[in-house]
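Section 3.1: Structural characterization of target chains.
Under the original work plan, the team committed to producing a structural model for every single-chain target entering the pipeline before any wet-lab resources were allocated. The record below documents one such target. The sequence was received from the expression subgroup and is listed exactly as submitted; it comprises 373 residues.
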Amino acid sequence: MTESTRLVDLVHSRIDEFINTRESIVTTISGDLAVLVDFSRQFLSGGKRFRAQFAYLGWQSVPAPSRHPAAGASAGVLGETAGIVAIASALEVFHAAALVHDDIIDNSDTRRGAPSAHRRFESLHGAEGWAGSPADFGRASAILLGDLLLGWSDELLDEGLDDAPDRASARRARREFNLMRTEVTAGQYLDILEERAWLTQPEAELLDRAVRVIVFKSAKYSVQAPLVIGAALAGATDDQLDTLRAFGLPLGIAYQLRDDLLGVFGDAAVTGKPSGDDLREGKRTVLIALAREGLDTASRHTVDRLLGRPDLTPDQISSLQQIIVDSGAVDRVETLIQQNVAQALAALDGSDVVAGVGAELTDFAGTVTRRVF
């Protein structure tokens, strides 16, 4: 078993343990609230734990003398402190909260091949025969579930910060976590803005606006921030943090570009989402901006007319997919992925990142951007 695999297992265990302790608090208020805990546990049971693993690699990237645990801190089987496991778990719980809210915003039926949170609550309402609209109950309950998970992520973060080597490192890790929350919320707003405001924006600006969404909604949050938070907890220097930022941002961009391709062309069995889901949701991604640049007027009008229609038929999705391919946008996105991965790896050259961690980061760059459709 690799260290990354064992780290993932530890995060699973830490999240389960944390939810168990919160279950007694919640159910003491009312037995009716047990469903919040049950749905939290189900929603947190899957996923690749990339953010947890990046946080751990960020922590490991700092030379060991700088990350000695605080007095009384306990070491895990990997030699990491309980602190980095709690921090990694906090990132995963925050991610779950973001997904709950994101699925409401996008009106998504599924997440990781299972019903999204608001659909679970909607089904509960229907099964129990309660009054009112099942959809309204589902949305309202899922908003509250997301809020609950946000609070829980902060509690786990505080537990992790208690194991920092000194208070300065804890404060820096907290600042980076706070910055991540602000940036991803801003990026989420920019994403929904682009779905609606693109029509009034200059054509020449659409690509830059789509890139801006990638940077703040995903790239910083998925790769850069976890790396920096983990390293900050370990007492990293400014130079060490700058190296991880220079690596994490382009890799995060490449990661999201790959995800955008999967959102249009991916196999539902792999992605856990229906094929073409981003087309139904009307996502104005870099892929779409590049496609519009390469299309004639008639094809561009077809894309604009169909994109964002929730009732797209399989034939219409296939037609849109073919138009996008014929525009050359897929090849251009593949090139952008390769360029961003190369930029990320170049940031590690000559850096003082621990040698073994540099190799793991290089492997991860391939893992999170690999073509799987």
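The chain has 16 helices and two strands.
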